[in-house]
């Protein structure tokens, strides 16, 4: 049985464990709670196991902390669970000095007996690195982000210097190592909790009933319905401003809009009808320029897309400008390659195929398909910042390709099923995207298109190019910015020649909220965070209209 099945079945079997406390099932009818209408269910409650943005949004910054983080408008690396760190001159030894006042969550299913220490850091990363680790194979032994960046090939070992000092020893210098430790995937788990679960032969529960050090802890989860978090009262920083956070899982964008307008959610993901929201004096629409890319990918291991000429022909036939105007409603920038213009490594001279249906038809003839062929496009069932409506985009591409004699069948599945079947390579082509986890350019190139990512199913094109991989490796071995930029420029040129995917747009991420909700939630990379969110009293009659409905939903 795969992890996704275990996840759903175990949640159903143990839901009484989470709701059996005497704290009551009804939510507070005050400003102390926020309801967030989210677009989908998480695949897991451990972001180490998935690169899905929906999963990161629901878990990473709500439940966990990492050793270091990016902060400020300039995205400077800053302390988190590690109060400081030191890198040797050769870049091969990085020592982290941990805080000594960090508490793990206390829940109905776990009561910690100690504070965070070095054992937790070793447990969290050795689970990923060591195939003999007791938890490595738990939940399917897939750690897609870390495997895509070849984490195990980079880290020689991790040493415990003392209870609050940990040293990573690398096999070579890597200019993106610290950036990768600041991602949403580099969360710290509880070694003590893991040991208890191991003794009970219930190791998989570590990824289903999460224990972290973050600002919120899990109270209740109903698959496809809601997630309820309570505030972590012993949080090592200032406590979160709200006491309860509810994710009302609403995959349909029209449903989220209806709930937002009816005050059934305080904040909504990926809103539609922007003009309608703007008309409301009690709502506000906000956006942030994300480090992302929406793309149309090809399964390069399946005919006819194992032929580069066919991939080029299909790409030439797609009117990207029409996609940007219709699907993104103009709220996105044309993607010349996977790297956004805002990245320091972007090269404006990167060659691009462009839009040329006549040439596309000619290339199909050269490739041996003068009469065209039939293909499928897999379209995401959820809205993401890099693609707010994949089904609509697929229909537009379908119309474009019909003009060159190619017949398209549009396929879609429930989100977790969609991702699982993509990773298994069942598709011919697909609409997906990537939101950066940190601002280093390697985070675009390696997780999406490297050979290592293709072996793990995270590179859904299954394209593997040794020259491309060597350029990425060369870029990571140097700290010279000009040299790195040169390597990445060559990598972008290879992508646009080989065309494993067609980069379409770099978009803004939109969010709608009531005017009574304060604080930053969105980030230009990584998942969302409700740590700084709060509600101010404006109109109690309006504010509390739907809270009982959500409470009933949680207790049914």
Task: Note down, in words, how this protein is organized.
The chain is an alpha+beta fold and 556 residues long. The chain folds into three domains: 102 residues, D-Maltodextrin-Binding Protein, domain 2, CATH 3.40.190.10; 147 residues, Dipeptide-binding Protein, Domain 1 (Dipeptide-binding Protein, domain 1, Alpha-Beta Complex); 217 residues, Dipeptide-binding Protein, domain 3. 33% of the residues lie in helices and 21% in strands. The protein is built from 20 helices and 20 strands. Strands 1, 8, 9, 10, 11, 12, 13, 14, 15, 16, 17 and 18 form a twelve-stranded mixed beta sheet that branches. β2 and β3 form a beta hairpin.
Name the descriptors.
556 residues; alpha+beta; D-Maltodextrin-Binding Protein, domain 2; Dipeptide-binding Protein, domain 1; Dipeptide-binding Protein, domain 3; 3 domains; twelve-stranded mixed sheet; 20 strands; globular; disordered C terminus; peptide transmembrane transporter activity; ABC transporter substrate-binding protein; signal; SBP_5_dom; Peptide/Ni-bd
Number of helices: 20
User: Tally of extended strands?
Assistant: 20
Provide the CATH top-level class of the largest domain. Answer: Alpha Beta
**pLDDT averaged residue by residue:** 89
Organism: Colwellia demingiae
Keywords: Signal
Family: Belongs to the bacterial solute-binding protein 5 family.
Pfam family, one: SBP_bac_5
What's a quick, concise take on this entry?
This protein is α+β, with helices and mostly antiparallel strands and 556 residues long. The chain has helices at residues 3-19, 53-63, 118-129, 144-148, 151-154, 177-181, 191-199, 253-261, 274-279, 308-316, 320-326, 357-366, 390-402, 415-423, 442-449, 451-456, 466-477, 481-498, 540-543, 547-555; strands at residues 33-38, 68-71, 76-79, 82-87, 93-98, 155-162, 165-170, 216-222, 226-231, 244-249, 267-269, 283-289, 292-298, 332-334, 374-379, 407-411, 429-435, 501-514, 517-518, 534-535.
């Amino acid at each position: 049985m795969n992890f996704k099945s275990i996840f759903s079945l175990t949640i159903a079997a143990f839901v009484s464990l989470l709701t059996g406390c005497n704290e009551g099932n009804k939510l507070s009818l005050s400003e102390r709670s926020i309801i967030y209408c989210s677009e989908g269910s998480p695949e897991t409650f451990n972001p180490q196991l998935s690169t899905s943005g929906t999963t990161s949004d629901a878990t990473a910054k709500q439940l966990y902390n990492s050793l270091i983080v990016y902060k400020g408008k300039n995205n400077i690396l800053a302390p988190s669970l590690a109060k400081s760190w030191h890198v040797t001159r050769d870049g091969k030894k990085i020592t982290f000095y941990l805080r000594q006042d960090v508490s793990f969550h206390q829940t109905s299913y776990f009561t910690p007996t100690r504070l965070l220490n070095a054992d937790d850091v070793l447990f969290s990363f050795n689970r990923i690195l060591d195939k003999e680790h007791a938890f490595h194979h738990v939940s399917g032994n897939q750690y897609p982000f870390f495997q895509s960046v070849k984490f195990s090939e980079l880290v020689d070992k991790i040493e415990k210097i003392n209870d609050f000092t940990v040293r990573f020893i690398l096999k070579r210098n890597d200019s993106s190592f610290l950036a990768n430790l600041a991602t949403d995937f580099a969360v710290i788990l509880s070694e003590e909790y893991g040991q208890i679960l191991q003794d009970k032969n219930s190791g998989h529960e570590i990824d289903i009933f999460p224990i972290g050090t973050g600002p919120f802890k899990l109270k209740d989860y109903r698959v496809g319905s809601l997630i309820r978090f309570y505030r972590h009262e012993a949080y090592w920083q200032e406590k979160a401003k709200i006491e309860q956070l509810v994710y009302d899982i609403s995959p349909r964008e029209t449903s989220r809009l209806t709930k937002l307008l009816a005050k059934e959610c305080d904040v909504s993901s990926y809103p539609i009808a922007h003009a309608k929201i703007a008309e409301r004096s009690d709502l506000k629409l906000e956006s942030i320029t994300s480090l992302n890319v929406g793309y149309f990918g090809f399964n390069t291991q399946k005919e006819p897309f194992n032929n580069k000429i066919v991939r080029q022909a299909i790409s030439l036939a797609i009117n990207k400008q029409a996609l940007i105007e219709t699907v993104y409603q103009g709220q996105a920038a044309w993607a010349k390659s996977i790297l956004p213009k805002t990245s320091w490594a972007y090269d404006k001279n990167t060659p691009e195929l462009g839009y040329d249906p006549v040439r596309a038809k000619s290339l199909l003839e050269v490739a041996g398909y003068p009469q065209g062929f039939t293909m499928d496009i897999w379209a995401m069932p959820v809205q993401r910042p890099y693609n707010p409506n994949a089904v609509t985009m697929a229909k537009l591409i379908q119309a474009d390709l019909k003009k060159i004699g190619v017949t398209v069948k549009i396929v879609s599945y429930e989100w977790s099923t969609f991702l699982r079947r993509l990773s298994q390579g069942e598709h011919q082509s697909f609409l997906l995207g990537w939101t950066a986890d940190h601002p280093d350019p390697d985070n675009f190139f390696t997780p999406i298109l490297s050979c290592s990512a293709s072996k793990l199913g995270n590179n859904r094109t299954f394209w593997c190019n040794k020259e491309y991989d060597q350029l990425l490796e060369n870029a990571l071995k140097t700290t010279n910015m000009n040299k790195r930029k040169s390597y990445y420029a060559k990598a972008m040129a290879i992508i646009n020649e080989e065309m494993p995917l067609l980069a379409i747009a770099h978009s803004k991420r939109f969010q709608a909220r009531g005017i009574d909700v304060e604080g930053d939630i969105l980030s230009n990379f990584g998942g969302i965070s409700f740590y700084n969110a709060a509600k101010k009293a404006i109109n109690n009659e309006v504010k509390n209209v739907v809270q009982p409905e959500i409470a009933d939903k949680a207790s049914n």
